[in-house]
From TrEMBL:
Gene this chain is encoded by: kdpA
Protein topology in the membrane: Multi-pass membrane protein
Protein name according to UniProt: Potassium-transporting ATPase potassium-binding subunit
Species in which this protein is naturally found: Lysobacter panacisoli
Compartment list: Cell membrane
Xref: InterPro entries: KdpA (IPR004623)
């Protein structure tokens, strides 16, 4: 409990000033560091052939987002398939198989970092440093840029607000995509990654370009005569994986490996990195749009859901009757303990991070179930940009439903929410169960492609968790699943893309449509969203739209498994 409270206090204390700074960066305010950052940014704008002052409509912004992902994705895919012939490969790592390379590329391109490979054995230093870490730095900032453009659209776009309010039916300026991504990367993400990598190196996380040392096994009866210890520039990657809501580790077992997470302090630093920027983004909202009370509503709603989820996870893992089962300690680091494992599993799925310091396959059933619920909601804190983007979807739908229930015209910040916007939002909400449940059903129907190690209730959870994690752009998984196959690689690549790009572009389109409308003056009938009452309504809508529609899958998986453990514990004399 002490670790949980310390983590929350540090995240809020650091997230608040970072959020204020991030708002200034995304507004393009002048800074004393403009000379330094401008020296870095100007060549980038020149290479991209863009004028950072030139705005874009929502269509132009979405097109730039899509093209940047396509080009970067193709380059990285080719790199993974040719890494054996490229430099910085002292361990002679072979080329990746095309389907594994495709899944890996799509996974990191979508800011998911779902891994069907072990990084220390299947990726060269160059692939880790350029392909993996490059995407871990850039893709979160792409998501941040899109959500900032969406927020601008909800408030009429950039420029003169009064002039914009007087024009009806014209597309608005939502900002420049290339400038937003560049400024966020250069002025915010990279400096923060530098600080975090130094902290982790201080704690003993490897940071070298030399090949790993060779050691003789202590057990003389072991079948191998020597063991090669995999190292590399691990600390910079771990910094990017945690701060960028990425989660993909240098090593296959991720932060459960002592080299990647050597001390209790490194464990706290890495957990703080998971939640820091998502919390900072909630503090960015108010200053960015000029409504401080909006920050309070967003932060308060997310905090309420986070506390409820984390509390249930900690109880289930460390204090419930099922904790007596010794089988649940398999896959957990005894040096960290079950409670720290539960805390990490909770925040990593609340934030779409996906990194682990224990194998989620070994979590208590309710803890694993809460991890699934966190990913189904996908906006408790959420990934960088995409979490707030999903929160805005729930916000818009809650305003629409509240308007229907009270007989008021549904409108948000003075702009009416009408049929075209609701149809787009409904399509986005229906996409999740269609994709996750559809792929889970097909996979479970054919045992030859399932590859799960547990045919019972837990086997259902393994498959459902994998597709839920892919769609939520989280990346964590229940180990024991044979997922390095053509089916899993290709099906998950499709789910990864469907979970990322519609969720980013559709709210941007809705904001673009709303920005074109005239602003209605506030009246006695105006629905105020920045109130505790509406926040509770919003939480209820989130629970109804996500948790309840997946209740059958949760009952067949973690709930049934928990009851099995509970019955066994009750029957034990």
């Amino acid at each position: 409990m002490t670790e949980t409270l310390l983590l929350l206090i540090l995240a809020i204390a650091l997230g608040w000033p970072l959020g204020l700074y991030l708002a200034r960066v995304m507004r393009g305010d002048r800074s004393r560091m403009d000379a330094l950052f401008g020296w870095i940014e100007r060549p980038i704008y020149k290479a991209l052939g863009t004028d950072p002052q030139r705005g874009m409509t929502w269509r132009g912004y979405a097109k730039a987002f899509a093209w940047s992902n396509l080009v970067v994705g193709l380059v990285v895919w080719v790199q993974f398939m040719t890494q054996a012939w490229l430099p910085l490969n002292p361990d002679d790592i072979p080329n990746m198989r095309w389907d594994t390379a495709l899944h890996t590329m799509v996974s990191f391109l979508t800011n998911t970092n779902q891994q069907h490979y072990s990084g220390q054995a299947q990726l060269s230093y160059l692939s880790q440093m350029v392909g993996i870490v490059g995407l871990q730095v850039v893709t979160p900032m792409m998501g941040l840029a899109v959500v900032v453009a969406t927020l601008r659209g909800l408030f009429g776009g950039r420029g003169d607000a009064k002039a914009a309010a007087s024009r009806d039916g014209e597309d608005r300026d939502l900002g420049n995509y290339w400038a937003d991504v560049t400024r966020a990367t250069v002025r915010f993400m990279l400096p923060l990654c530098l600080v975090w990598s130094l902290l982790l190196t201080w704690q003993g996380v490897p940071s070298t370009l030399q090949a790993g040392p060779v050691a003789a096994p202590i057990d003389a009866s072991a079948e191998m005569k020597e063991q090669k210890i995999p190292v590399g520039p691990v600390a910079p990657m771990v910094a990017a994986k945690q701060l960028g809501s990425n989660g993909g580790g240098w090593y296959g077992p991720n932060s459960a490996v002592p080299l990647e997470n050597p001390t209790p302090l490194s464990n706290l630093i890495e957990m703080l990195g998971i939640v820091l920027i998502p919390i900072a983004i909630t503090f960015m909202v108010g200053p960015l749009v000029g409504r401080k009370r909006l920050t309070a509503m967003v932060f308060g709603t997310m905090l309420l859901m986070s506390v409820a989820s984390t509390g249930l996870s900690l109880w289930s893992e460390a204090h419930s009757s099922t904790t007596a089962d010794i089988a649940l300690m398999e896959g957990k680091e005894v040096r960290l303990g079950a409670e720290s494992s539960a805390l990490w599993s909770s925040i990593t799925t609340q934030v779409n991070n996906g990194s682990v310091n224990a194998m989620h396959d070994s979590l208590a059933p309710i803890t694993g179930g809460m991890a699934m619920v966190n990913m189904l909601i996908n906006s408790i804190w959420g990934g960088i940009g995409c979490g707030l983007q999903q929160f805005l979807v729930y916000l818009l739908l809650s305003v629409f439903l509240a308007g229907l229930m009270t007989g008021r015209t549904p409108e948000l910040f003075g702009r009416k929410i009408e049929a075209p916007e609701v149809r787009l939002l409904a399509l986005l909400i229906l996409l999740q169960p269609m994709v996750v449940l559809g792929f889970s059903a097909v996979t479970l129907a054919f045992p030859s492609i399932t590859g799960n190690s547990n045919p019972g209730f837990h086997g259902i959870s393994q498959v459902f968790y994998e597709y839920t994690s892919a769609f939520a752009n989280n990346g964590s998984g229940f180990e024991g699943l044979g997922d390095a196959t053509y089916w899993w690689n290709l099906s998950c690549a499709v789910v990864l893309a469907l979970g990322r790009f519609p969720a980013m572009i559709v709210p941007l389109a809705v904001a673009g449509l709303l920005a074109r409308k005239r602003v209605a003056p506030e009246s006695a009938g105006t629905l105020h969203v920045e109130t505790p009452t509406f926040a509770l309504t919003l939480v209820a809508v989130i629970v109804i739209l996500t948790v309840l529609q997946f209740k059958p899958a949760l009952v067949l998986g973690p709930i049934a498994e928990h009851l099995t453990f509970y019955s066994a514990a009750a029957a034990t004399p």
